[in-house]
Design goal:
The complex is a heterodimer of chains A (272) and B (330). With 272 residues, chain A is an alpha/beta fold. Helices cover 46% and strands 24% of the residues of chain A. Chain A contains 7 helices and 11 strands. Chain A has an 8-stranded mixed beta sheet. Chain A is extended and about 85 Å long. With 330 residues, chain B is of the alpha/beta class. Chain B folds into 2 domains: 184 residues, Cytidine Deaminase, domain 2, CATH 3.40.140.10; 104 residues. Helices cover 53% and strands 15% of the residues of chain B. Chain B is built from 10 helices and 8 strands. In chain B, strand 4, helix 3 and strand 5 form a beta-alpha-beta unit. The N and C termini of chain B lie far apart (75 Å). The chains are: A alpha/beta (272), B alpha/beta (330). Strand 11 of chain A pairs antiparallel with strand 8 of chain B.
Chain lengths: 272, 330
């Protein structure tokens, strides 16, 4: 029976999972943990997670359930609206032990979602997948469990997106680090970015005009909307607006510098 | 520990994992109702040479009045549990969200002092959620200077104490540069995520609407200046009272001397010298800590306004350039 479940994951979860994988014990091949979040109307939104210590060997698996419960209680104190919505494991496949673990989580949550993050990078991709289980088999004979895949979306709050963008800047840096920059330099980077895009567009237009590339109507329409969205203002009006804005900025800047000088002065005076 | 106590000078920069940044953002978003409430939490990590590495964090639940909540116990349990999964369990600081940069107050000073007293290298990370919504990630690390630590330890905030310790509002806190670092695997995750996510790049930071921020900045400056003015008034009235008292004291002693001289003339015993302090109770010296904090806060607001103004200028000039170009063919 196909479930219309959709799984939405916040980036912090993925980071957390990868981090707990990196910190795993030496003999552990994979890491498991609980997923917390909210579940409504067929959308499971995963907003938090924590790792749970477990031991896995060929024939048995042991999960520290006490720990899982404790951590859940602690997390609940911070955010009472989060409930257990499933569990995650690193590694590309679903093993036999996963079924057992999933059964435990089925006791805690209504329809637990099992998420796998492929940290072994099989096939050169870190696959992020989610599944729900349903019993399968022939009635009367041994029943098994089937894990049906569930589509995964990555969603984030507005500030989270900003954070991820900043972190992404460190992708290509050999030291993998990002310095916190001033606002002005951030605007500069965004402008450079825009400029690159504009150059690409102009090159494309040139190519189309020289008949090197066939013209595409949809692209043409987008370009029309782009060009017409630049507001057509009367030059004087625009100058007036610009000047008044600049004057406001200058005034506030002046006042703040004045205040600052004033405090330094008063400080010197009071310590005479 | 075998190694000697590291001096505070040794921590030159703070290195944060991408994970911590996202966790802080998420906590503030969820609990601070988008940034209006204060959200606090603990930073975990370790110190490596001159870098303070922050590798994980967890948040503190907000204090509800009816909850008897043991903060210490919560913290201990959390750290014990995190230790089980090999997460660094060393306390290296704490983080707090702020509303428009108004975080320099007694509470922060007190908490940071406690932290730095027990763990020398601890920092406080200030995260501004409202600026992040506008498109600029605002995450700063602060620490009390050595001067401030010693000054606060004494607990004496009279004007003389401030003069002798040479402390000014600029030497209270020092900002430490922050670097965000990711591991290789996280890098892979980022690449994977950018493929998976169909989000368009966000150009929120190019928003030209400046008046709201300017207004807010000015309002904050005004209220701070009002507070400073009232503090200054208090100090002035104390000075006036002190002067009056001095005058009274000298008058009294003069009268005493004159009387004694008369008595000696008449052949009687002079009156015993009375302790002037008993007659004129010494005035309570006002604490200058508040004005120091206010000055620091004003300084911070001014810095923020400057930052904001500089980037607004950039955007305005850019739009001017765009408009000029569009007008050219006409």
């Amino acid at each position: 029976m196909a479930s219309s479940l959709v799984c939405t994951v916040h980036p912090v979860i993925l980071f957390s999972i990868v981090d707990s994988y990196e910190r795993r014990n030496e003999d552990a091949k994979r890491v498991i943990g609980t997923l917390l979040g909210t579940c409504e109307k067929g959308v499971v939104e995963v907003t938090n997670c924590f790792a749970v210590p477990h031991n896995e060997s060929e024939d048995e698996v042991a999960v520290d359930l006490e720990y899982a419960r404790n951590m859940y209680e602690l997390h609940k104190k911070v955010n009472p609206s989060e409930v257990i919505v499933g569990w995650y494991s690193t590694g590309p496949e679903i093993s036999v032990h996963s079924v057992l673990i999933h059964e435990y989580y089925a006791r805690e949550a209504k329809n637990p979602v099992h998420m796998t993050v492929d940290t072994i990078l099989r096939g050169n991709k870190m696959g992020i997948k989610a599944y729900t289980s349903c019993p399968a088999g022939v009635p009367g004979k041994t029943t098994g469990t089937m894990f049906t895949p569930v589509p995964v979306n990555i969603d984030s709050y507005e500030p989270e997106r900003v954070g991820v963008e900043v972190i992404k800047n460190g992708k290509l840096n050999p030291k993998r680090s990002v310095h916190m920059v001033t606002d002005l330099s951030q605007i500069e980077t965004v402008c450079d970015d825009l400029q690159e895009k504009l150059t690409a567009i102009t090159e494309y237009i040139e190519d189309v005009l020289n008949n090197k590339v066939p013209a595409d109507n949809t692209v043409g329409r987008h370009l029309m909307t782009l060009v017409s969205s630049v507001p057509d203002l009367d030059l004087d009006e625009f100058e007036a607006m610009l000047n008044s804005n600049m004057k406001d900025l200058l005034m506030v800047e002046y006042l703040s510098k004045l205040t600052k000088t004033q405090i330094s002065l008063s400080e010197k005076l009071s310590t005479l | 520990m075998a190694s000697s106590r590291r001096s505070m000078d040794s921590v030159q920069s703070v290195q944060i994992d991408g994970l911590v940044v996202l966790k802080i953002i998420k906590h503030c978003q969820e609990e601070g109702s988008g940034g209006t409430d204060l959200v606090q939490g603990v930073l975990l990590g370790l110190v490596v040479e001159s870098k303070l590495e922050i590798t994980n964090c967890f948040s503190f639940p907000r204090h509800n009045d009816d909850d008897e909540f043991d903060e210490v116990q919560y913290q201990m349990e959390m750290m014990r549990n995190l230790r089980r999964v090999n997460i660094d369990h060393l306390h290296v600081g704490w983080y707090q969200s702020t509303v428009f940069g108004s975080f320099i107050n007694k509470a922060l000073l007190e908490s940071q002092f406690q932290y730095q007293h027990s763990i020398e290298e601890s920092v406080v990370l200030i995260y501004d959620p409202l600026r992040s919504t506008q498109g600029f990630l605002s995450l700063k690390a602060y620490r009390l200077t050595k001067l401030m630590m010693e000054f606060y330890k004494d607990g004496e905030f009279s004007p003389e104490a401030i003069k002798s310790s040479n402390i000014s509002f600029e030497s209270m806190f020092e900002e430490i540069p922050v670097v965000i670092k990711n591991s290789h695997l996280i890098n892979t995750l980022l690449c994977e995520m950018s493929e998976m996510s169909k989000e368009k790049p966000d150009y929120n930071c190019l928003d030209l609407g400046t008046s709201a921020m300017l207004e807010k900045g000015l309002r904050q400056l005004m209220s701070c200046v009002d507070d400073t003015a009232s503090e200054a008034n208090k100090f002035l009235s104390y000075l006036r009272q002190y002067q009056k008292q001095q005058m009274n004291k000298s008058q009294h002693s003069q009268k005493r001397q004159a009387e004694n001289a008369q008595r000696v003339q008449r052949g009687e015993n002079p009156l015993p010298e009375e302790d002037l302090n008993k007659i004129f109770k010494p005035l309570q010296q006002p604490s200058r800590l508040d004005s120091l904090l206010l000055a620091g806060q004003i300084d911070n607001y001014c810095g923020q306004v400057t930052d904001f103004v500089s980037q607004s200028f950039g955007k305005l000039l850019m739009s001017e350039g765009l408009q000029d170009d569009s007008q050219k063919p006409q």
